[in-house]
């Protein structure tokens, strides 16, 4: 029992100490704020004395109002410098954006010009493609659906340019052009397949130059010419290719079979190749043969060399094309423009 009373006395003492400490702290804080309030509430008199004999101006205030005013003035001054600095930065950024905007507008104008050029080129492409398909007998209407044609045909593209404005017009043009080109892929692929199927036919027709030396030139064309030896007019039945030298290679101008490798007083060493479709080619004045009679040759294969045999005034190749018993102008079959 005595121990319990002892514990109670200790508890009361601790509670009393805590209460007294709390009260003392509260009083100390209260005293601190009272002193602060008294300091800020201290009266001040600001006197403005003019240099002249004017009336002295007295302004009564306290420390709190004066301190608040000073803080307010300092805040206003710092705010002014801060916002002024931001205004300068914003002005610089605005000028930079304006310059970028001018550059963007210039690029947009250039893009519009290029877009217009692209549309003109596409229009020419459409005309050329339509003409080529017509010549090849390809009906584009069977290859492209009517809806696709109505959406992608360049005629509708050009007629729609007046109905849209600004950048929307360029976007619409590009989309229409893209759609048209996508639709043009199929007929072009058909042309490619047709050419691929006809490649064997091209190799059976003498349509390349028999000489490919960098120095090759036409020294005499097919038809009426002055004979270089007699000086009389006569019908030249072939084309003379010259490189100003002897020994340059001669190529077969089409697939075929060598039917003659011989010598003639006029043609000198010459070769005759028989091709399909009743066509023959003759290669005369050769210095040497690279093939023999009965051999099958391919287009572009070397069959001999340019020479000066037979009746000539210098080394060259006399080249002829025959269809049956008729001699024809070889230039009608050569697929490269004759020059020189």
TrEMBL record:
Domain of life per record: Bacteria
Parts forming coiled coils: 94-128
Keywords: Coiled coil, Hydrolase, Membrane, Transmembrane, Transmembrane helix
Record domain M23ase beta-sheet core: where: 235-330
Pfam families: Peptidase_M23 (PF01551)
GO MF term set: metalloendopeptidase activity
Protein's name in the database: Murein DD-endopeptidase MepM and murein hydrolase activator NlpD, contain LysM domain
TM region(s), chain numbering: 63-83
CDD domains membership: M23_peptidase (cd12797)
